[in-house]
From TrEMBL:
Belongs to the DinB family. This is DinB family protein. The keyword Metal-binding applies. It comes from Bacillus halotolerans. The keyword Metal-binding applies. Keywords: Metal-binding. InterPro entries: DinB, DinB/YfiT-like.
């Protein structure tokens, strides 16, 4: 995997942790508070991001996209029901799985054929899809930031530039 793809993934892990750290500072009920937004609660956002990242890990490991989607559907209620600390542990465990996968250099660049359930096949590699995984996480961290602001709380800074600054200082 390119150094940039790995650095982006490491940034993604850091940014998720920033959100978890901020949520732990807030009243416990904020995590499940119903909010008129893209998702009904922050717990729903984190469940969605986790299940998407899990699905991509499954695809990178050779499973089909249909398998990944079925797994997400099967686990949605379970993950939404998890407490904040349990979700944080799931994210950390999944990041360890990604890191172990990235250490298998031959797997990262191995051609993948991903069948889109709606039709068509995409030929790619895990290395090419890492920016998608990171971008997806960034997008939904933005949802969480907006949701927190909507109910009167500041979020946590998760910008890539800040990550680089903190990493290099």
């Amino acid at each position: 995997m390119s150094d940039l793809a790995l650095q982006l993934y490491e940034y993604n892990v850091w940014a998720h942790q920033q959100i978890f750290n901020r949520l732990k500072e807030l009243p416990q009920e904020v995590y499940r508070q119903e909010i008129q937004s893209v998702f009904p609660s922050i717990s729903h956002v984190l469940s969605h991001v986790y299940l998407s990242d899990l699905g991509w890990a499954e695809v990178f490991s050779g499973k089909s996209m249909n398998h990944a989607l079925a797994l997400a559907e099967q686990l949605t209620d379970q993950t939404v029901a998890k407490e904040l600390a349990e979700m944080e542990a799931l994210f950390l465990k999944l990041s360890e799985r990604y890191t172990a996968f990235f250490e298998q250099k031959e797997q990262i660049h191995k051609p993948l054929q991903i069948e889109n359930p709606a039709g068509g096949i995409m030929k790619t590699t895990a290395s090419e899809l890492v920016p998608h995984v990171v971008n997806h996480g960034t997008y939904h961290r933005g949802n969480i930031t907006a949701m927190l602001r909507q109910i009167g709380y500041a979020s946590a800074p998760t910008d890539y530039g800040l990550y680089l600054y903190m990493k290099k200082s």
